Amino acid sequence: MSLAFSLSGIGKRYPHFALQDVSLDLPEGQVMGLVGVNGAGKTTLLRLLTGLAAPDAGEVVVLGHRLPQGQVAARREIGFASEDMRLYRSQTLRWHMDLVAAIYPGWREDYAAELVRRFDLRPQQVLGGCSHGQRVKALLLLCLARRPRLLLLDEPTTGLDPVARLEVLEALAEVLRDERRSVLFSSHNTHDVEQLADAIAFVHEGRLVACADRHAFLERWRRVLCQGALPAGLDAWPEVAVARANGSLVELKVRDWHPGLPARLAAQGLTVQRDDPMSLEDIFVSAVRAGAVA
Amino acid sequence: MNLNIPVIRLLVAKDWHLFRKQLAVYVLAGLVALCFLGLGKPWAFYVGSLTLIIVLVSAACFSISTSLVVERKEQTLAFVMSLPVSPADFTVAKLAGNLLTFLVPFLVLLAGTLGLVLFTPLPDGLFVYALLIFAWLLFAFAVSWAVAMSVESEGWATFGMIGSMVLINPYIMALAQVPAISDRVREDAVVWTAPAVAILATLAALALAIIAATTWHHARKPAFY
Fold first, then answer.
1. Confidence label for A294 from pLDDT (cuts 50, 70 and 90)
2. Nearest to B224 among A52, A84, A87 (CB)
3. In angstroms, rounded to a whole number, what is the distance separating the alpha carbons of residues A224 and A241?
4. What ipTM was assigned to the predicted interfaces of this complex?
5. d(C-alpha B94, C-alpha A103), whole Å
6. CB contact under 8 A, B78 and A69
7. In the CATH scheme, what is the homologous superfamily, with its name and number, of domain A3-216?
8. CB distance from A122 to chain B under 8 Å?
9. Which domain holds residue B95?
């Protein structure tokens, strides 16, 4: 299985933030969602993957190119759009398309025209007169029409109103279904990630807290309600991320649910009343609060 | 150092395309200033020379601020850096773009000024003096560019531009204190004196050294951040 990218033991230190010992791989053709709160390290990770930043420790290999040395070659095959990236307001989308087409030999005009229709954009319109949603779609068009092997999107839906956000997500989902390209996109919105990603990575305070297949996450994590008194040391169990008591009711957030768990809890005096799947948001919050690798 | 020349050329063309209309306005304003200078009246000479300096300072500040400071502020720099360019390509593209957008109005107005001095009744002694004024503006441009390339802060970049450009005032006053320069201004001949040549050579060398050192420093960075 070839990898779109591989991060091994990455460290990057800034005056008020440090990314520590991050190892993460993305197999080619997969869509991975990178989830974390603001300041968790998502943008730093994406900058490392584009070669815009150099790691202080560890190794970054993207599409077979070691970065930052091979950043120019890698960026020829990467489409990168970030929330803090803007196009020239005084120029039209057509002007931007011509600029990008002149730089990337893989640019496909017919595909660009299809994206213009799908995103409902007007190429001759000056971007200063476009809404934020239209500018985000224009940026995505410029990334996608160059046919990148790896698409890196840093918070593509941040700052969009709900309608524009839904439009961008729908358009993105449709585009991603068309192709077998690798995608890593970051978001602090778990709903966006749930819609698009095959695999999910949680980042918090510069560390990779958890990384797994989306279905595996949803299968393994459970909210378990038990009757009884909260036994001492339960929250130290490797399966248990969070344990809370409310009267005789005990709520557990379990990171590794298995059929043998109710019997083990019964041995501690707890009767399992129900176990429910958790939303990705709840899993993320629990994983971050637990602070350990899930 | 392997430079991605085709992309550098496109980025320079992009800067030229973005700023060409405003630069045409600066050249036009400079030509109006030269018209005043050519009238040969004391008041017109004062208005013309003052306007010419203001136009040149504005052109230098415009070139640097729109290409570096405003691009950073409006976050279009992130778009440029996402293209297949290394820090060396980016630095060279910015240097070439800035030099092009500044030097075109600078050289047009320099040629116009020198031509005006030589081919109108204005004293030819102004030839060297005009060169000294233009040399300071080139030096101030180099300092401003180096500061804008090296700092993230808009405030410091603006301070660098205003500071170096405003210093033209004490510089002109200092030139007036050098008899070998000030006494020759009213003569009807181009006279190269040792102090004038030394100042010209020093300013040109300093401008080149500042630009070269800044380019070398930024081009050696392995990554942008």
1. very low
2. A52
3. 11
4. 0.84
5. 17
6. no
7. P-loop containing nucleotide triphosphate hydrolases (3.40.50.300)
8. no
9. 5-219
